[in-house]
Structure to design on (136 residues):
């Protein structure tokens, strides 16, 4: 009987503690998914919103320094359901980052996404992608 009471008390404590931590979670958490690639150490998109201005960045880290990156970087206005800007991205010869700017609207939510192809000097390739979202 004593073990049953302890088990019930423990379950009640869990029910009280877990919802409290969930309620304290912030709504504007930046969620990113990182995938493992063969020819890419890392790729990340960064988006900074300040009033009517957005600063969009892409950072690429290849396994081989001679790898080339080709793809498209897109800034999308989720609130208005439209693309704000699209840029063609080509990185080679040691270039590993790109920075772009765009005019945006206050109060909207934006997604910056990249989709492209990494090609090694030997001709091997893989598709890579990343994205991030921010509220302005």
């Amino acid at each position: 009987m004593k073990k049953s009471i302890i088990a019930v008390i423990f379950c009640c404590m869990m029910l009280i503690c877990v919802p409290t931590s969930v309620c304290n979670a912030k709504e504007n958490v930046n969620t990113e998914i990182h995938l493992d690639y063969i020819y890419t150490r890392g790729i990340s998109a960064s988006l900074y919103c300040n009033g009517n201005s957005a600063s969009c960045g892409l950072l690429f880290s290849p396994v081989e320094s001679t790898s080339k990156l080709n793809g498209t970087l897109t800034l999308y206005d989720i609130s208005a359901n439209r693309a704000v800007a699209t840029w063609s991205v080509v990185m080679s010869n040691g270039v590993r980052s790109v920075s772009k700017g765009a005019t945006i609207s206050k109060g909207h939510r934006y997604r910056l996404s990249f989709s492209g192809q990494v090609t090694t000097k030997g001709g091997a390739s893989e598709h890579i992608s990343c994205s991030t979202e921010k509220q302005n």
User: Anything to note?
Assistant: Residues 18-27 have pLDDT under 50 and may be disordered. The chain has one domain: 40-135. Helices lie at 2-23. The beta strands are 40-50, 53-62, 68-77, 82-91, 97-103, 109-119, 125-135.
